[in-house]
């Protein structure tokens, strides 16, 4: 299945979580109402498997991943020793597109992915156009010269605050340490995702 390209509001209502990376009063009111004319009547209690599947779908939607990408990422998680939920969050959070968003260089993860894909981002001085690239501690992420004066980028930087595991100076930022689960708020249950893949 390819990446969802339809209306983001509809996707958010289907998953019951804001995937727009920005607040919207009208969306917040409708988050728990699935899209469709008879949505309220259709809503029913999910099975255990259904709940696990729904949480996985939420995570995919939030980080903008396709099924194959998410499965591969989870396989990498399983190879690591230690807390599976911590590794899941750290691998999701250290994707290049996500850190471009977390550093405030983009107003949404979708915009961040576009910046990376179009060659507007450098890592340690080298242009990198792979959104899934796993950033390492002390890597320096910077905006390319051409995109620095973009109004959308400038607004994103002005309105954002970086998280404790990041440092931003001007149009560059650095990953100070591996992010932990407690560092970020995610609208999905990591334990249910682990259970889904442990079946």
Could you please describe the fold and organization of this structure?
With 199 residues, the chain is of the alpha+beta class. It folds into 2 domains: 8-91 and 187-197, Ribosomal protein S4/S9, N-terminal domain (Ribosomal Protein S4 Delta 41, Chain A, domain 1); 96-177, Structural Genomics Hypothetical 15.5 Kd Protein In mrcA-pckA Intergenic Region, Chain A. Helix content is 45%, strand content 9%. The protein contains 10 helices and 5 strands, in the order ααααααααβββαββα. A 5-stranded antiparallel sheet has the order 2-1-3-5-4, covered by helices on one side. A hairpin with a 2-residue loop joins β1 and β2. α4 crosses α10. It starts with 7 loop residues before the first helix and ends with a helix.
Descriptive tags:
199 residues, 5 strands, 45% helix, alpha+beta, Ribosomal Protein S4 Delta 41, Chain A, domain 1, 9% strand, Structural Genomics Hypothetical 15.5 Kd Protein In mrcA-pckA Intergenic Region, Chain A
């Amino acid at each position: 299945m390819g990446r969802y390209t339809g209306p983001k509001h509809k996707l958010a209502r289907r998953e019951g979580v804001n995937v727009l990376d920005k607040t919207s009063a009208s969306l917040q009111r409708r988050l728990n109402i699935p899209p469709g004319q008879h949505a309220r009547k259709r809503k029913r209690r999910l099975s255990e498997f259904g709940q696990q599947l729904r949480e996985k779908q939420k995570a995919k939607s939030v980080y903008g991943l396709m099924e194959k990408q998410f499965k591969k990422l989870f396989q990498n998680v399983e190879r690591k020793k230690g807390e599976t939920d911590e590794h899941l969050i750290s691998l999701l959070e250290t994707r290049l597109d996500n850190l471009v968003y977390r550093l405030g260089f983009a107003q949404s993860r979708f915009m961040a992915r576009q910046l990376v894909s179009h060659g507007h981002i450098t890592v340690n001085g080298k242009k990198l156009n792979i959104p899934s690239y796993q950033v390492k501690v002390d890597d320096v992420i910077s905006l390319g010269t051409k995109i620095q004066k973009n109004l959308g980028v400038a607004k994103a930087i002005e309105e954002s605050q970086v998280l404790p595991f990041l440092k931003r100076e001007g149009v560059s930022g650095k990953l100070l340490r591996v992010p932990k689960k407690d560092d970020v708020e995610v609208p999905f249950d990591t334990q249910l995702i682990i259970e889904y893949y442990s079946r």
